[in-house]
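Morning!

This is the sequence you dropped in the shared folder:
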Amino acid sequence: MTAAQPDPRSCTFRPDNPGIRPAPGAPTARSRGGVVLAEARWDGVAPGVPGFVYSGFAPVVVAVADRCLRARYGEGPLPAGNRTAVVLVSASGDRASAAHVRATVAAGGRVGPLFFFQSVPNSVAGHVAARWGLDGPVVCLSPTGDARAEGAAEADLLLYDGDAAQALLVLIEQAPDGTPGEATAVLLGEGTRQ
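The structure's back. Tokens below.
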């Protein structure tokens, strides 16, 4: 009989695997899951954001993130060392910008340089992080199933592994015609869900 292979996280105690114990003096991982510290929704058009053009995608992300973070902290930025991650979740991304670029290229036109910047969803996630002084990881996901469940699982992993003390989860989808849709932002902190 062969011995079980060590878990890749064998240096930490995992509540879901009590057979793994930390080495003496090793830090222990946080309990899996996060408590909801604040939540906000946005539906419709949001004020413009400098550096982002044409589409309502980035403005809605910024608006819902601001609303959520203000509910918890008032005005920003947060103090240094806050270890707050940003997890942006969108199955379709910025539909309006993608359609505009596609149409411009098909017509032989010149695509403006800001479209190259904003075509990557982590550009707006990074904007939110810089605006609020969030100094944790920035992650963007394109879910294949339940967007909130997949985003929460990623946030839980960041909290559990100690990469972040809290995570701002932003869920956004634009309407198929590229008009602003609705968005939800949830600030998750360390702890166990009730």
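Headline: The chain is about 30% helix and 20% strand.

More detail when I'm at my desk.
O.
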